[in-house]
Specification:
With 539 residues, the protein is of the alpha/beta class. It contains 16 helices and 20 strands. Helices cover 37% and strands 19% of the residues. The chain binds nicotinic acid adenine dinucleotide, adenosine-5'-triphosphate and glutamine. Its EC number is 6.3.5.1.
Length: 539
Amino acid sequence: MTAVKLGLAQINMTVGNLPANAAKVADAARWAHGQGLDVLLTPELALTGYPAEDLLLRPQFVRQQEAQLGQLCQDMASYTDLHVVVGHVREQGGLLYNAASVLVNGRILATYFKHELPDYGVFDEKRYFASGRDPLVFTVKGVRFGLNICEDAWFPDSPARARAQGAQALLVLNASPYSLGKQDERHAQIAAHVAGMTMVYLNKVGGQDELVFDGASFVLDPAGGVAMRLPVFEEALGIVELDTQGRPVSLSATPHVWPDSLEQIWRALTLAVHDYLAKGGFTRAVLGLSGGIDSALVLALAVDALGAANVRAVMMPSRYTADISLVDAREMAQGLSVAYEEINIAGLVQAYDEALAPQFKGLPVDSTEENIQARIRGNLLMALSNKSGALVLTTGNKSELATGYCTLYGDMAGGFAVIKDVPKTLVYRLARWRNQRSPVIPQRIITRPPSAELRPDQTDQDSLPAYEVLDAIIEAYVERNESVAQIQAAGFAPEVIAQVVRLVRLSEYKRRQGAIGPKITSRAFGRDWRYPVTNGFRE
Ligand SMILES: Nc1ncnc2c1ncn2[C@@H]1O[C@H](COP(=O)(O)OP(=O)(O)OC[C@H]2O[C@@H]([n+]3cccc(C(=O)O)c3)[C@H](O)[C@@H]2O)[C@@H](O)[C@H]1O
Ligand SMILES: Nc1ncnc2c1ncn2[C@@H]1O[C@H](COP(=O)(O)OP(=O)(O)OP(=O)(O)O)[C@@H](O)[C@H]1O
Ligand SMILES: NC(=O)CC[C@H](N)C(=O)O
């Protein structure tokens, strides 16, 4: 017999936009009221958005947020007996807490302060928050609900304290960002801690700068079985009905099947691009389309994220551009129906050469001239951006950023680095996966050897190890923090490991100046990788 009807609002908040976030919570509450629900969950820090970073250090931000919470409470007062759990910050005794309150009938029934504050990887919560100490258990229609916030459930203590206070169902509000394999990790980390209680895990969804939240909210029954899972990478509402013991008896959705890993990444990247532009006030994007695989993949992602009408591709041939690059770029742009234009840069390159001829007299041609080409293209794209308001998407992949195989103020110029956490081998796998759904990337772009086309007959492998080898070493060194000896023991040649490790170290300064982009692996360059630029350490 149903005792309590509980709603899950897997919604997409905007960091800092307090009125918009409050309106989203109020909309979900209106839905919950209409459905006759008793309890509604919203994500961790729903009101501020997550992570609000140093906005949290501004007293005015905290004050406005508190006022918004009071207003929200009033706005929902007419939804009689609906308990809305809202994540917000609370200043108390000179300390700031990552909090969640139960709002009902126009007042705050109780407030919980998060116990465990993550301070690793991309998280910085100890910079802002103090830890709460007390459990919170509240009763609705005879069912006892415990409350936890995200990291709390990754440790045994907070769920155990809720259980000790008689909780039959544990409600966990989350802002848990996506990375490959993260859903399994969440389950593995949390399931044992919540055993014996029903657990309702409600996660936020949406892109926020370098992070993308997948939602994927789920319900575990007291035996640890997955009773329900909401869709991934989209907003969703769900209902679970609990019996008098807090056990799930009826669900609005059967467990949602995970998309495979390539589809997950595709959806993560498109959501990240969409939200970065939409939340920043942009509708259109522009990129340099070279006839190579990286810009082809970024174009396909941009079209899926923004729609063909909002994407502009610019081919900028030089004397080193192969005919097939032009043919393939045209074919791809035409197939996708995006605006496409060609700007020949040969004259601009020549003008640079002539201007610098006195200074460069007697010196050999080297990467200087290669970089000038990349910088001319970057300059032209930024001009198009300035004039049209379209954001420049950069096309560098993780393998290139790891090794510095990219030009500062050249192909690195732009606003959002869509595939900066996608290693080159994964670039190919994603391209093939996307073409299986519908062919958008001409086959030759996938099969031809990668080249920067900055000098005659150049290929990437003139300067870099084979991408299979490079990516495996980068994954071991960057994602798993393995030592050179460990990587060698896995069978890689010492001189190749040394070359890669050296390039990673030497290119730190470039990554610091590069555009941000979405994290999809267990460790991305960005918030997650804080290496010194000036660095004397040698292994
Ligand atoms: N520690 C440090 N801190 C701050 N700045 C530092 C620095 N070390 C050098 N620099 C500066 O950086 C400059 C060197 O960097 P930068 O000008 O970018 O140029 P650089 O790294 O020398 O050359 C770019 C490389 O990327 C390759 N590339 C370019 C474009 C596209 C692709 C592709 O396939 O996608 C590949 C190209 O073939 C070349 O091998 C130095 O001249 C110096 O001004
Ligand atoms: N001829 C070109 N026309 C337009 N953009 C270009 C051109 N060449 C390079 N670019 C831009 O600079 C980026 C770096 O490209 P480059 O060809 O040097 O190496 P890449 O990493 O192999 O990229 P891609 O696989 O897209 O060619 C490209 O992805 C593209 O955005
Ligand atoms: N917001 C949080 O507390 C996130 C930390 C948590 N371990 C996660 O990634 O899911």
